[in-house]
Design a protein that fits this description.
Number of helices: 3
Structural class: alpha+beta
CATH architecture: Roll
CATH superfamily: Hotdog Thioesterase
CATH class: Alpha Beta
Low-confidence stretches: 1-6
Shape: globular
Oligomer: single chain
Number of strands: 7
Length: 157
């Protein structure tokens, strides 16, 4: 069992490539326009640029947009610590929306708190970024399961 360290150590090139390739196969992330901006050991950051289609009736980012990128950031943070040939699924997550999400983009960071052979726990945080200022808009926890000997399935057409 591995407890995450607070440092942001880079992953090896193969793990980064495997993580980015898996993320690229996510139809929802592509549909939303999310980008993977940071991949470290047990830490991944995603960016979601503002578009009116991602908002709710008051013009804030919709909670669905916020929670989708938080979930994926955490999932891929855990994935960076999983063995080759495995894949990741979310078992559960809880997200507290702590401020309205308004900005030029959202930035979601998933950080592994505890990585086990089967279950991994992550901290999720989302910030709204506007004009160089960051506002913490959501925080949560997530449990992942490592699907051993079960690589990502190819996308169906």
């Amino acid at each position: 069992m591995q407890t995450a360290k607070p440092t942001e150590r880079p992953v090896d090139p193969q793990t980064e490539a495997r993580t980015r390739a898996s993320f690229a196969r996510q139809g929802l992330m592509a549909h939303l326009g999310a980008q993977m901006t940071q991949v470290c050991e047990g830490l991944v950051t995603l960016r979601l640029p503002f578009r009116p289609e991602l908002t709710q009736q008051h013009g804030f980012f919709h909670a669905g947009s916020t929670s989708a990128i938080a979930d994926s950031a955490g999932g891929y943070a855990g994935f960076t610590l999983f063995p080759e040939g495995s894949s990741v699924l979310t078992v559960e997550f809880k997200l507290n929306l702590i401020a309205p999400a308004r900005g030029d983009w959202l930035e979601a960071t998933g950080r592994v708190i505890r990585s086990g052979r089967t279950l991994t726990v992550c901290q999720l945080d989302v910030w709204a970024v506007s004009g160089g200022e960051r506002k913490h808009v959501a925080t949560g926890m997530q449990t992942l399961i490592c699907m051993h000997d079960s690589p990502d399935a190819p996308a169906e057409g």
